[in-house]
Amino acid sequence: MTIGAFIVVRLSSSRLPAKGIMKILEKPMIQLMIERVQQSRCIDKVIIATSELPSDDPLEDLAEKLGVGCYRGSLEHVMERINGAAKANGCDTIVELLGDNPLVHSDLIDDVLKIHTREQCDYTATLTKEYPTSAKEMESFSAGIRVQVYSQAVCEEYKAYPDYINNEEKHPCAYIFEHPDSFKLKFLEASEKWSYLNRPELNFAVNYRKNFDMTRTIFEMLYPDNNNFSLKQVCDLMDKERHLYLQMGC
Fold this sequence. Notes:
alpha/beta, 9 strands, seven-stranded mixed β-sheet, 31% helix
């Protein structure tokens, strides 16, 4: 089994253009994310999955510089792009990560992968309030650190669900998790070791300038001592520097 971490990213965002290569500590934000992902004990390859637009050329250049993979495909059709990236890189297991989630941690990736492998699932993810299965009694993670795991074969199943293709009202993987009768689903809840992230009202994603400023401050304060600082350290820092909550993408 070859496990690939596919970071879905583009530089043509209307809300915060080129955010993936905006500098934090003299490094592009996506580079800092890659450093964290590479410390997973389970990942075999890291691949930037971006579009064919000329505006995304800097991402391909950065991937070459960092020695990670880069696959360029459809801008609008994310699942087609990820599927092509998995095939091109010989990966039968996909870890889908969003490029605007730079704080995602290697331990979180590994815990989702452990469940996925142990339970032989079709789709495994961190539980967040966006999922239809996220009932009140289940303990949901904060948004903006999502980890999704599924096989390349399940990814290719998007072709059997044409109503979901390029549907802006649907998450790209919705054809999977909205059909629990067809796919075996499991979710990692924000409980036990992850209970401190049972704060579904929070959002660590970088969508706007204020979110980037918050993320930059977190890296500036924690990265110099540990380039793979934990999410517990992030939460502790935010509780101490409470002004950072005002910059969240809530």
